[in-house]
Amino acid sequence: MAGYTDFLLDRYFNLPQGRYVNVIVLRETKSETIFRTEGSGEPLNREFVHAGLNNGEVIPRVVISKRKQTAVERRTGRELLRGFGLLQKHDDGAECMLNTNTPCERCIDCWFYGFAAGGSGAQKSRVITEDAFSLLPASSIVDTKTFNALFDNSTMRNPVTGEPSTSLGESEYVKPEAHFLDMEVLKDVTADELVYACGNILRSSRYGAISSRIGRVQNTILAIVFSRAEICSSLELTQASYDRLTEKEHPLRTDDVAKVVTGENGALAHLLPQTIGPYQMMAGQPLATFLAEIHETYKEPEAFLRRLDASYPAPAKTKKGR
Ligand SMILES: [Zn+2]
């Protein structure tokens, strides 16, 4: 991380410092993917936006909501923390829980992704995500299929009799090999926190409906941009990349997509000079080295996670059961 230290914190600090790490993520569907409960009849989220920054055509793009993305990545991280006993317990033995009133307020997940507590306060999430947009129009990456309709418990089996569902519903799905561009902005993080966030991004692959196994997504980190102010948005990045595609038919080749984003005349090269203040992009060999380090760290992550866990201040309010 030498060379990027101006944009990272030495250790956790509880007031904003205005240091941004923008992780440029390419999310590619590897199977038919449903981002909604299948059979619910709900359409996929889509937004009408301009096709490119230069191309003024208006097209519908499929949107993966930011909530969906962080929820999946948090869970990926928490599974690991749980395995090492790093999700803290309350006096009554209840474990740190997402989306309840019982965050432990002292695990890596609470410190990093934030929590809103019923009692003693809140920690702001330092992960600022945006909705991710499909590179190509919805019309070329979405199809419809028929499903057995779901019961109340979101399964295809009657919760009382165990009989399979016989009524049919329709669901839209995203075809395999569809590309979404996304920026995950980490604010005021340490080098270890950056590794933790990237580890969660790279290890997450199921963004689809929870009730099924449908929906495999492969995340690739295309570049990391360190800055002192926010850079372009996910949508601008998507549009600038779309402008640069020579071929606009589904399925696109992932290499070609990567090139229009990070290449010499790519979207980032076009958009980054508009950034106010200093910035530095990590791509190519330095990025490959960094990603290889993450790979190595996660072969045996315990020591890393314990170091990260120990880097946070002791909470004012002591909790038993640690
Ligand atoms: Zn916690």
If you had to describe this structure to a student in words, what would you say it looks like?
The structure is a single chain. The chain is built from nine helices and twelve strands. The chain is an alpha+beta fold and 322 residues long. A hairpin with a 7-residue loop joins strand 2 (46-50) and strand 3 (58-64). The longest helix is centred in the N-terminal third of the chain and has 18 residues, at 66-83. The mean pLDDT is 88.
Care to give the gist of this entry?
The protein has 322 residues and is α+β, with helices and mostly antiparallel strands. Helix content is 28%, strand content 22%. The strands form three sheets. Strands 1, 2, 3, 6, 7, 10, 11 and 12 form an eight-stranded antiparallel sheet that branches. Strands 4-5 form a two-stranded antiparallel ribbon. A two-stranded antiparallel sheet has the order 8-9.
Shape: globular
**Estimated helix fraction:** 25-40%
> What structural category characterises the helix and strand content?
alpha+beta
Number of distinct beta strands: 12
Low-confidence stretches: none
User: How far is the N terminus from the C terminus?
Assistant: 32 Å
Mean pLDDT across the residues is 88
Rg measurement, Å = 21 Å
Q: Given the structure, what is the number of helices?
A: 9
Share in β-strands: 15-25%
N to C succession of SSEs: EEEHHEEEEHEEEHEHHHEHH
Which molecules are bound besides the chains?
zinc ion
Largest sheet: 8 strands, antiparallel
